[in-house]
Amino acid sequence: MTGTTRSIRLVYATLACCLLLAAQGSLAASVALVPAAAQVQPGGNLDLVLQIDATDVGSMTDLVQGQLLIEFDPALASFLGFMPAAGVTTGGAPLIGTAPGGQRSVTLSLFNAPSSGPMGILAFAIDAAAGGSIAFGLRDADEFFGSFVLQTPTNQPFFPAFSGANVQVVPLPGAAWLLLSALALAGRLQSGRRNS
Questions:
Q1: How far, CA to CA in Å, does 34 sit from each of 7, 46, 137, 147?
Q2: For the segment 46-58, what is each residue's pLDDT rounded down to a tens digit?
Q3: What is the value of pTM for the model shown?
């Protein structure tokens, strides 16, 4: 066997190993923000469900821990709080901070989360005007090493894909404006009758 043939075989063996490692890393664990409503009104509230699916890296009975970072524009929304799902514990109160670009950040540390299903609900007040949209970013709080681990049975780390959410801000429906106008007119007529 010549030196060139050995080199080619070594390259093929290296490529095969890389493909096997890439196939193992392509397990489809995911964490997503799912809006309770695709549209919200100015001055209203919005709930975002924090959803996980890590059944490809573990079983349905495995428990997960991880640290998340949610980012949004503070001129468009205000963070109200986080309510963990049943059985999920937090590593303390959410940490509120500032992210690059003037974004607001909320960091959550979660333990004993299910490997599939909701991990909790994030509540926001909507400060944006009608006609716009609000983007909520979601990522691992430790992007270098990753913070997600299957707690049971082996403390196996995994690297889920993250999906944020976009929510449209819409004006009050026309029927609501009509009702408010009718109530104002009725109130004005009523006060006019009292004065005469």
A1: 50, 11, 12, 21
A2: 999 999 998 888 7
A3: 0.73
Q: What is the pLDDT of residues 29-46, one digit of tens each?
A: 999 999 998 889 999 999
Residue 87's alpha-carbon distances to 4, 35, 58, 80, 90, in angstroms, are 60, 22, 18, 21, 10
Instruction: Tell me which fold the domain 28-172 belongs to.
Output: Immunoglobulin-like (2.60.40)
Q: For the beta carbon of residue 26, count every other beta carbon within 10 angstroms.
A: 8
d(CA 177, CA 179) in angstroms, rounded, equals: 5
The answer to whether 51 touches 150, Cβ cutoff 8 Å, is no
Going from N- to C-terminal start, the domains of the chain cover 28-172
Q: How far apart are CA 142 and CA 66, in angstroms?
A: 9
- In 3D space, the residue among 90, 63, 77, 30 whose CA is nearest the CA of residue 152 turns out to be 63
Q: Which amino acid is at 157?
A: P
Strand 45-53 versus strand 30-35 pairing type: antiparallel
- What are the residue ranges of helices labelled H in the chain? 3-25, 174-195
171 DSSP assignment: P
Q: Which of 163, 124, 104, 120 is nearest to 40 (CA)?
A: 124
